[in-house]
Amino acid sequence: AQSVTQLDSQVPVFEEAPVELRCNYSSSVSVYLFWYVQYPNQGLQLLLKYLSGSTLVKGINGFEAEFNKSQTSFHLRKPSVHISDTAEYFCAVSERGGSNYKLTFGKGTLLTVNP
Amino acid sequence: NAGVMQNPRHLVRRRGQEARLRCSPMKGHSHVYWYRQLPEEGLKFMVYLQKENIIDESGMPKERFSAEFPKEGPSILRIQQVVRGDSAAYFCASSLDRGLDYEQYFGPGTRLTVT
Questions:
Q1: Which of A41, A90, A100 comes nearest B108 by C-beta?
Q2: Going along chain B, which residue ranges are E strands?
Q3: Partner A, chain B 61-90, Cβ-Cβ below 8 Å
Q4: Which chain A residue has the Cα nearest residue B107?
Q5: Amino acid B40: pLDDT
Q6: Do B35 and A101 touch (CB under 8 A)?
Q7: Listed residue (B88, B109, B115, B80) closest to B8, CA to CA
Q8: What is the least distance, in Å, from the CA of B41 to any CA of chain A?
Q9: pLDDT, tens digit, 9 for 90 and up, residues B5-58
């Protein structure tokens, strides 16, 4: 079984500031890693995913994340945020293998970008 | 192309009543997944269905919960004799095919409140 911990439930930042949303996971098997974003009244949308290869993954909207196997982390970063980045962000994992469609999510981090 | 649709968006039921949650996948998608988000927790996988088949129901509670995805019409998650502990947000996702190359697209969720 896997579990995901998002250490911050809320992160307020000012526009154009950098941001890091933290994610740690626990699993007895190798995993794939994902970040999703949910804007108000919409469904979750995939930002980026790590399957294999380079540990630095670039996603949509200028976001990137780095997989750190030794620290079991997959933190999400953006060097300069916009007001439109205000949303809830979810980190998720799935196990490698035949059941890779089963996503396990963290509780989410609400990012609020202030002018 | 419309996204994943879920209805109703909010549902209030008294203890002992039945709840029916509907999910219309994206056009052309024949794979549907249901997830549940209990208060203060992350989304957890419940069931994976293809048209007329349940592929994996390992995350479904053993009693009172059932899911179907008929040849025609939306996927239905049915909860019989609801209890207060069923209060949660229920998310549906769909994909074009199975596997990591095929993104799961999420609906906005149905928030069930049991009084």
A1: A41
A2: 5-7, 10-13, 19-24, 31-37, 43-50, 53-56, 65-68, 75-79, 88-95, 105-106, 110-114
A3: none
A4: A43
A5: 85
A6: no
A7: B109
A8: 5
A9: 999 999 999 999 999 999 999 999 999 999 999 988 889 999 999 999 999 999
